[in-house]
Amino acid sequence: MRTLLALMCLLCTTTAWANQLQGIRIWPSPDNTRIVLDMQASPRFDYFLLNGPDRLVVDLAQTQGRVNFSAIKNSGELVTRIRESKPPQPGSYRLVFELKAAAKPVVFPLAPAGDYGHRLVIDLPYQDQSRKPQQPARKLAPAGLRELVIAVDAGHGGEDPGAIGPKKNREKHVTLAISRRLAELINQEPGMRAVLTRSGDYYVNLNKRSEIARKAKADLLLSIHADSVANQGPRGASVWLLSSNRANREMAGWLEKQEQQSELLGGVGEVISQTDGNPYLTRTFLDLSMDRSRADSYAISEHILSEMAKVVRLHKRKPEHASLAVLKSPDIPSLLIEAGFISNPHEERLLLSAEHQQKIARAVFNGVKSYYRQNPPNGTMMAARAAPGAAVRHTVRSGESLSVIARRYGVSVSRIKGHNDLSSDVVRVGQVLNIPGS
Prior knowledge:
By secondary structure, the protein is α/β, with parallel strands linked by helices. It contains twelve helices and 17 strands. It has helices at residues 2-16, 171-188, 206-215, 244-256, 258-265, 267-274, 279-308, 345-351, 354-374, 381-386, 402-409, 413-420; strands at 19-28, 32-39, 45-50, 55-60, 63-65, 79-85, 93-99, 106-110, 118-125, 148-154, 192-196, 220-227, 238-242, 320-322, 334-341, 391-395, 432-436.
């Protein structure tokens, strides 16, 4: 009889707690704070908001909680406290997230993937956009000229670790380290500016990455990754661009997004939208834009591979094509760079080395610079410097010295002095200088 009662109690407990909350992770990013609840099984959930103060309440049906709240890492400001509360019914579990400001949550479950099991994801978009970190200050460009903008995309991030090496090192950390080094080299080059799609350990949606590049008016998108296969043997770097099959599939999608066509096609898109919205004309211009983007991508990738071959081993000596979501923009040349195989024990060690990361970043930078020096876009500082005998007019600003101006344009102080008949190194605010072509 006692055995039967014990079994019945066990069955009741199992029924009441069909799931278990195993952990909570918080990932602050510039656009939102993501909260991930690690679950033993697929969650059944409900949620609602309270104000005065602002709170998000999440109810997990038939769930037991075993979380050490004091051990949860939280570097963000939006979520100020996480605590339990009395559940609405026996066997359920209630979580309360105390918030610094109001938010409109997006809540959805995720199935097991990679090292992660079942998860419940809560995205809390920032209502106050002043929370976004500021981009590095732009270098001043001469009037009428613009900088060449390179979007640098560190693959994966946050709860998406990417590939994991034999020593459990994660791709997301390697890609961010190389991306930061590459962005620093770009920002040091006169006439070039970098925009990072992510600057920390958080997840950015694949579609959002190309949107960030587009909003920054990027001339090129470089997505940095580390390769991985089940076999630990393969080694070497490679460069990938969008396959023609994926390009065709994406084209069909863009044709349906009429509100974004003027954004992609500029003035041509506006003219089409103001007429009868001819789908054949739109398709033609989108095709031309995609063809140009893919052709430029291939040419740039050849320059990058040529530079990378000088400092690292190559897995593929020619650019490869693949169906990759981050490369699908029809208006921005886009490349995915595999820095090496993190699944290879030797290359895993190299990819963690600051010296090796700098080698990769320098090679990619040199390849990009080599291409654009030969093919500078119209209206850029690089185009002005590339023109034979070209001189650029520069108005001296507050805080600028002759040496600062010389570094910005990549010419010597003596050449600027000679070109402007200057007898000393002293310049005054508002003075107009003719900068000789480098």
